[in-house]
## 1
Amino acid sequence: MPGGIDDYVGLPRVEKLLRVADELGYGSVLERALRGGAGVADIVELYRAPLWLLGAVARAVTDAITGRRVGYVVNKILNYSNVCIVGCRFCAFYRRPGSPEAYRLSVREAVESVVRDWARYRIRQVLFQGGVDPEIPIEYFEEVFRGIKRETGGEVAVHGLSAVEIDWYSRIHRVSVRELVERLVEAGLDSVPGGGAEILVDSVRERISPAKTRAESWVKVMDTVMALGVPVSATMMYGHLESLEDRARHLLTVLKLQRRRGLVMAFIAWNFEPGNTELQREAPYPAGGTELLRNVAIARIVFRHEIPWIQAGWLTAGTRLGQVSLDYGANDWGGTLYGEKVLPAAGVPLPRLVRDGIERIIRGAGYEPYERDNWYRPISSAGG
């Protein structure tokens, strides 16, 4: 990994690209970003730069950080309940309390679901998320997390509950965020996913999810989580009602949080899927593939090594575009996500991927795959 913020500008490949960028009028803004000093106006300008240029610079930066290796994790997602009182306009998954289509898994059902996939696929991680279900007590999560750890011998990491869930459950049960997180960690929580960030600008959040946690609250929850030594990831959902300035503010908010705490492991950008959602009337079409590539490349250029892992974004965009995103600075494939229910509710079909399939996809794009754990550390592959 480069030793200082000037090292990227000094890389031979980057120097050549900056000379080309100067001729196109983007050299100074790219250099500021590569030195870690991009502002909102700079990032907006990057969104207008030629895509091939962004991709080439982003890939050069990623090569300097992690080379041509691309990690993946064998995991499942456990949507423990689809009951939610927040009612985001972009979500096709949630159901209101009392709906005939509502469900919530019992502690036993949740634990058994994880154990089945651990035995079948040797999953290393469970992404544990649902709606904000007011009927679920804190003890439910404690029992599930302890059960997962007990029944899998501690082999499955719990990557669980978004900042929004943590914030709402702390208020519903009248405990502080710190106390709630401490209890969850004691029960087996290993890390917190970045869901619920969407766009960290309140004027956007008020339009797409009026009842949701404000941007400042999302940041405060994540700050508290990391202050307790718990790592997190960060996400961005783009392609709905946000502007380029909103995207830029979002990226800088995440970067500021990382510079304060240093435990944001990865960044994941994904496009809004309008199918079966209330927001479909205002944003009827999903963003195109070039938008994913642009967001991946700009994230790498802005975050550089400060957030080392940028995921490929294949989940909403598909595996072929996920392959292309590796050329635009991504260096992690994400997970197999057995059991995912949220995107299928919006009409997005998901492939069933196992180790061999993911490794073929990564190799097919010209990169070297490796299996990793919840903390992005390489582990030996075990077939699957």
Note: The chain has 17 helices and ten strands.
## 2
Amino acid sequence: MQTAKNVEELLRKKLRPVEVGRKSVSELLAAMAETGFQGRNLALAAEIWERAARARDTVIMMGYAGSLSTTGQWKIVKWLIENRLVDVLVSTGANISEDLIEAMGFNYWIGTPYIDDHILRKNGIYRFHDVYVREKDYIKMEEMLAEFMRGIDRRRPYTSPEFLNKLGRWLSERGVDGILASAYRAGVPVFCPAIVDSGYGVAYIINRYKDGNFQLLIDHFKDYELLVRIRAAHKDSAVVFIGGGVPKDFIQLSAVSVDILTSGDPYLTRAHKYAVQITTDSPQWGGLSGATLEEGKSWGKESPDGYSVQCFCDATIALPLISHALAERVGRRESPPALSWVFS
């Protein structure tokens, strides 16, 4: 919040136009940081993420919403996990199932939204705006998930990180090297608080259709407790929201429940010190996906003394630029939090 009162305080820093020339992505974003509008905010997003990566005793939690893996973003998420620029991933079911299609050796295809979708249906093609995938390939992914579900011990409920860690190991052993395989190898917990809203739900129904006694339980209340415990175990936290939705609020709420576990006082919080949101949703409609990080301060979700930026930008533009800047500035993070206890 701007608190400057006089001309000298208000006009402290000159805006500098971007000079065209040879630049790395990191250098370009550094130049954009001295411009305006969403270009500046995009540059600040990279700076805050870098600051969080260099901070001590800080856990970085990333919300990965929508169906972005179909657009080619999943390998970026893998890289962020492998280099521990993300310590905890909270994802939609779509993003950690649809990446498996390419990991299995199938393809997504460049398409167009300007087509009669009845033609696509007749030819067995699903459409994600301007991306196509073969229906038969998508079904093979769902059948693979169903096969995994049949092979695990289902006599007790799982948390989603336990379930997805087991799946990551199973996929890694079979050479299906998607997001979950990378998370398994890196010891990064992946939460999916709405897992049935995806191919995982279809895989469950496949098994129920084949065997009416088939059961599989995911305990999302335990999920939430685990995420709160992760937040409680570290002095500070950073949040990166790619989109909004369930992943965003699941992470946000971890800050407001920490002290219920530690002190019993529900009015004490451990607000996230670093916060970045990339979204195309607007705040005036009242939805969580567009809600500003400033609004989050009223709940104790973001710290008034921390570092935060909201960038209104398509994630397929922002995420490649930010990740490449982080590769140039940070590379592999040193001494990330150890979170293997989540799976025990």
Note: The radius of gyration is 21 Å.
## 3
Amino acid sequence: MDLVDARFIAFAAIGALFIVTPGPDTALTIRNALIYGARGAARSTLGIALGSAAWAIASVAGVAIVLEASLVAFTALKLAGAAYLVYIGLRSFRAATTTPQTARLRGGGPFTQGLLSNLLNPKAAVFFVTVLPQFVVAGDEPVRFALMLAVYEALLVLWLDLYGVVVARAGRTRVGVRIRVALQRLTGIVLVALGLRLAIERR
């Protein structure tokens, strides 16, 4: 059986569409690119990628399926994720006057934010539970799943890292410096709004 076939390409295409659609991952990448520069955005991306990989593996192990089936578990995780997004958004206001040159990458900072943001987002679990099985059939080799996950992660890292570099460079331009604080606060508003939407959104 060919590892790369029409099913594989279709999954990669849908995964790419899911990745480029603006959401919490994109907003967090922009936030940390403005505060910490490209390095901070890259660390966020690594955390996000690890979180999505964990959800993919959990879906195969059945953990994410249990989450999808349990209203209580889903709601608890959703509210925790919403609260975290609101918390990160509010912190953006506090850090709005900090420049990428003076901001410190303390500990796991952006990496931890990216990881928790993804792990506390039940929509990430739902994606792998509902989409991935449509492109896997009985008899598929484990290496096929590993390759599918690797391609998804590569697309995710490439897109968000590119986003982070562009935002970080724009923030250092003469015009960018003037609007960076306003944009950072706007990103904070977006994160808070995403958190509130997640809290009230149904499955």
Note: The mean pLDDT is 80.
